[in-house]
Amino acid sequence: MVRFFGILVGLFFTGWLLVSFVLGAKEFITNPPEKAVYYDYHLDPKEVSFASDGPLGKFDRQQLQRGFQVYKEVCAACHSLRLVAFRNLAELGYNEDEVKAIAANWIIETPDIDPATGEMSTRPSLPADKFPMPFANDVAAAAANNNAIPPDLSLITKARTGGAPYIYSLLTGYQEAPGDLPDAAKPGPGLHYNPYFANLNLAMAQPIIADDQVAYSDGTSATIDQMSKDVTAFLVWTAEPKLEERNQTGWAVIAFLIIATILAFMSYKSIWADVKAEKKKKA
Amino acid sequence: MSFPWAKEYTPTTAFGQWMDEKLPIGRLVYNSLGAGYPTPRNLNYMWNFGSLAGIFLVVQIVTGIILAMHYAANADIAFDSVEHIMRDVNGGWMFRYAHANGASFFFIAIYLHIARGLYYGSYKAPREMLWLLGVVIYLLAMATAFMGYVLPWGQMSFWGAKVITGLFEAIPLVGKPIQELLLGGFAPDNAALNRFFSLHYLLPFVMAGVIIMHIWALHIPGSNNPTGVDVKGKQDTVPFHPFYTAKDGWALGLFLIFFCLMMFFLPNALGHADNYIPANPLSTPAHIVPEWYFWPWYAILRAFTFDFLFIPAKLLGVVAMFSAILVWFFLPWLDTSPVRSGTYRPKMRVAFWILIVATIILFICGGAPAEEPYVMLSQVAGAYYFAYFLIILPLLSRIEKPLPLPNSITEAVTGKPLEKAS
Amino acid sequence: MATVDTGVETMDPSGSGDGEDGVRRRDFIHIAAVSFAGAGAVATVFPLVNQMNPSADVLALASTEVDISAIEPGQAIKTSWRKQPVFIRNLTEAEIADANSVSVDELRDPESLADRTSDGKENWLITLGVCTHLGCVPLGAAQGEVKGEYGGYFCPCHGSHYDTAARIRKGPAPTNLEVPEHEFLTDTVVKIG
């Protein structure tokens, strides 16, 4: 009985899938799907490397500090960094007093309740505070930015397919829309052409626009490319602050496991030696 | 329960004897995982994945309990509490990555365990109950994994919850109320998140209970083996300990090395970037996919693109997806060939490897966007998947002429016919 | 062919027939493998337990700065440090004199007021608001609360009385209210912790 009904059910599913395949294939041949207009213009992220790449990766703290400076002077006016606290900046090599000063002098104050009146107010940030949000809420953020909410940057290098190279490519990828671009893909009002963006046009105008837009204090030449790379490196750190600890722990654990596995294998071999020997003897 | 030549548990200490009278746990372990369990001597490395899956369930439970100490199941703060684990909790990133990647390695072990059972006929009499319990464990694992993926409350979590509960909507008449019942609302929100967390914490322990029954059911007939021939005598077996504990031990080391490479150096490779964006009910990610271990079923779901008479394609897809797993419950009675191992079934063996290829195609198609050629490929592969279980196996057992079976395991191992012991 | 069925039986994992050296070498491998696995398991326990220690964000709040300019003599405020109450009290001349008039040797927990306050800031008494008996919050910091028989703090849970230097004078508490580590950053800002 099971087999009888089984074959019936099987014939139905198998048959209908094959019929669907034939119908779909016919449709595919007679009426092939058109590629989206932006298919030919979209570009994959550029090849770019960072000190933090790979299992041996470490952060270049000098670069992270420069990247933080770019974030502070270019990005922070619109983009929040809500999961990162000022105290975390100590990991970039700032000392306690510097962290305190950065927090206290941050362009946006931390919202709090006035201890005297109980009303909403703001106060200078403390190292324990997270970076305050540039906009009070999403509606305010959208209203101030042509209806596009600037995404939070704390996790951005992990939250975008393509990761850090994608962010770097996006920052350096702004260009004039090509002349042969179909009308449907042309940047509308308030949009900017960038072939690294999924649908080619994004609301954010090119943020890093000129060399020396940020004055580096460590002598590094602040080219557009360098600033973009530095701020991307900084955002790799904000997204994965434990990266170095992770790589180091990983090597230690794997080294231990390799030795343990070799020992276990030798133990296994010796336990089975007699069974194998007996097999050989008789074969 | 066991073979007559199984070693007898003999406690050596006075305390051991006292315990053995009051609560014979030592005896239980000795007889199930120790020297008291005679195991076929010819098991190959495919037999390691059962214990590996069990160990990874333990890894998941331990890391999961730790994560639950820091996680907050509330739609407003769930995402941030996960980031709190990643950034501030001591070693929190390690537990979170171990748990996320551990789920994948658990499924790798479970899929290889199932494939081994399919090839060597481990589902056949007298091991039907063992197989059925295994299917139940797999279903529980899928439910647990799905609900676990919702907890970080990122974009994929939210839309995964929405799409999967949306499948129930396809059921005529009662579909919509069932979906609302599952979610406790009209879309995933606090109510859904809290119940998913509660069940995600509960189900692994239910699984552990079913696994105990699975092992119990295993010990009644004893392990199957690559020849599929029954154990004939003492010379066919070795004690589980130390022979298979040593083998499982070193295989565990190897599996853990792969796991740690993934967890420490590519921790997000099996995840999806969109899940690092907090859930947003107003915006769907461009390309929703479930976790990789659901891809074959997701491919079957999407392979049904045409209505059949009055049955809408959506409902067909849902029914087919569930049937694809439920068919395993009937497998012991669909395949009636008395020969267990594929090694001695020339035609079944070919059909089996085509099934593996079809399943790999389904894996690829399930992870790909719903466009051609993936839909057409998944239709062909899906058709074969159903045909293998429901048509090929039932018919094959009638027309296939199996190769001659060895008389015993020992004969298969040594290549010499068994001689009567003097 | 006795080897067929006796062979399996004699497979002792410690090995036999390899001579004495063989036995030792084989034993050594098993011991090494098992001890390595054991060491790994023990090493894993550390992070499993350590995750319960205070996390980085909690530790970041381990010190707090308080503005005390608004506290008049005779008043006290209750503030929060490490999620525990802290009493900051501006002692009057009379309270200071009262505290200094007690013979330190007779106290249950002998400490002078000077021991418990910063140099030159003898009027600022900063203590945890946690009774040393069983951890209740004593009364006496807020206006109108009972200050106990010695004019300091009174714990209502089991009746411990503290004097104006927050020293235990009567009741079950074993020691004085704890003075947290603190430092005056300016005349009006004190850093606790």
TrEMBL record, chain A:
<keyword id="KW-0408">Iron</keyword>
<feature type="binding site" description="covalent">
    <location>
        <position position="79"/>
    </location>
    <ligand>
        <name>heme c</name>
    </ligand>
</feature>
<dbReference type="GO" id="GO:0009055">
    <property type="term" value="F:electron transfer activity"/>
</dbReference>
<feature type="binding site" description="covalent">
    <location>
        <position position="204"/>
    </location>
    <ligand>
        <name>heme c</name>
    </ligand>
</feature>
<keyword id="KW-0349">Heme</keyword>
<feature type="domain" description="Cytochrome c">
    <location>
        <begin position="62"/>
        <end position="239"/>
    </location>
</feature>
<dbReference type="GO" id="GO:0020037">
    <property type="term" value="F:heme binding"/>
</dbReference>
<keyword id="KW-0812">Transmembrane</keyword>
<feature type="transmembrane region" description="Helical">
    <location>
        <begin position="251"/>
        <end position="272"/>
    </location>
</feature>
<feature type="binding site" description="covalent">
    <location>
        <position position="78"/>
    </location>
    <ligand>
        <name>heme c</name>
    </ligand>
</feature>
<keyword id="KW-1133">Transmembrane helix</keyword>
<dbReference type="InterPro" id="IPR009056">
    <property type="entry name" value="Cyt_c-like_dom"/>
</dbReference>
<dbReference type="GO" id="GO:0046872">
    <property type="term" value="F:metal ion binding"/>
</dbReference>
<feature type="binding site" description="covalent">
    <location>
        <position position="75"/>
    </location>
    <ligand>
        <name>heme c</name>
    </ligand>
</feature>
<dbReference type="InterPro" id="IPR036909">
    <property type="entry name" value="Cyt_c-like_dom_sf"/>
</dbReference>
Automatic annotation (TrEMBL), chain B:
<feature type="binding site" description="axial binding residue">
    <location>
        <position position="214"/>
    </location>
    <ligand>
        <name>heme b b566</name>
    </ligand>
</feature>
<dbReference type="GO" id="GO:0022904">
    <property type="term" value="P:respiratory electron transport chain"/>
</dbReference>
<dbReference type="GO" id="GO:0046872">
    <property type="term" value="F:metal ion binding"/>
</dbReference>
<feature type="transmembrane region" description="Helical">
    <location>
        <begin position="350"/>
        <end position="370"/>
    </location>
</feature>
<feature type="transmembrane region" description="Helical">
    <location>
        <begin position="196"/>
        <end position="217"/>
    </location>
</feature>
<feature type="transmembrane region" description="Helical">
    <location>
        <begin position="130"/>
        <end position="151"/>
    </location>
</feature>
<feature type="transmembrane region" description="Helical">
    <location>
        <begin position="250"/>
        <end position="271"/>
    </location>
</feature>
<dbReference type="InterPro" id="IPR027387">
    <property type="entry name" value="Cytb/b6-like_sf"/>
</dbReference>
<keyword id="KW-0679">Respiratory chain</keyword>
<dbReference type="Pfam" id="PF00032">
    <property type="entry name" value="Cytochrom_B_C"/>
</dbReference>
<dbReference type="GO" id="GO:0045275">
    <property type="term" value="C:respiratory chain complex III"/>
</dbReference>
<comment type="similarity">
    <text>Belongs to the cytochrome b family.</text>
</comment>
<feature type="domain" description="Cytochrome b/b6 N-terminal region profile">
    <location>
        <begin position="15"/>
        <end position="227"/>
    </location>
</feature>
<feature type="domain" description="Cytochrome b/b6 C-terminal region profile">
    <location>
        <begin position="230"/>
        <end position="407"/>
    </location>
</feature>
<feature type="transmembrane region" description="Helical">
    <location>
        <begin position="316"/>
        <end position="334"/>
    </location>
</feature>
Automatic annotation (TrEMBL), chain C:
<dbReference type="GO" id="GO:0046872">
    <property type="term" value="F:metal ion binding"/>
</dbReference>
<dbReference type="Pfam" id="PF10399">
    <property type="entry name" value="UCR_Fe-S_N"/>
</dbReference>
<dbReference type="GO" id="GO:0051537">
    <property type="term" value="F:2 iron, 2 sulfur cluster binding"/>
</dbReference>
<dbReference type="Pfam" id="PF00355">
    <property type="entry name" value="Rieske"/>
</dbReference>
<keyword id="KW-1278">Translocase</keyword>
<comment type="subunit">
    <text>The main subunits of complex b-c1 are: cytochrome b, cytochrome c1 and the Rieske protein.</text>
</comment>
<dbReference type="InterPro" id="IPR006317">
    <property type="entry name" value="Ubiquinol_cyt_c_Rdtase_Fe-S-su"/>
</dbReference>
<dbReference type="InterPro" id="IPR019470">
    <property type="entry name" value="Ubiq_cytC_Rdtase_Fe-S_su_TAT"/>
</dbReference>
<keyword id="KW-0408">Iron</keyword>
<keyword id="KW-0472">Membrane</keyword>
<dbReference type="InterPro" id="IPR014349">
    <property type="entry name" value="Rieske_Fe-S_prot"/>
</dbReference>
<dbReference type="InterPro" id="IPR036922">
    <property type="entry name" value="Rieske_2Fe-2S_sf"/>
</dbReference>
<protein>
    <recommendedName>
        <fullName>Ubiquinol-cytochrome c reductase iron-sulfur subunit</fullName>
        <ecNumber>7.1.1.8</ecNumber>
    </recommendedName>
</protein>
<keyword id="KW-0001">2Fe-2S</keyword>
<comment type="similarity">
    <text>Belongs to the Rieske iron-sulfur protein family.</text>
</comment>
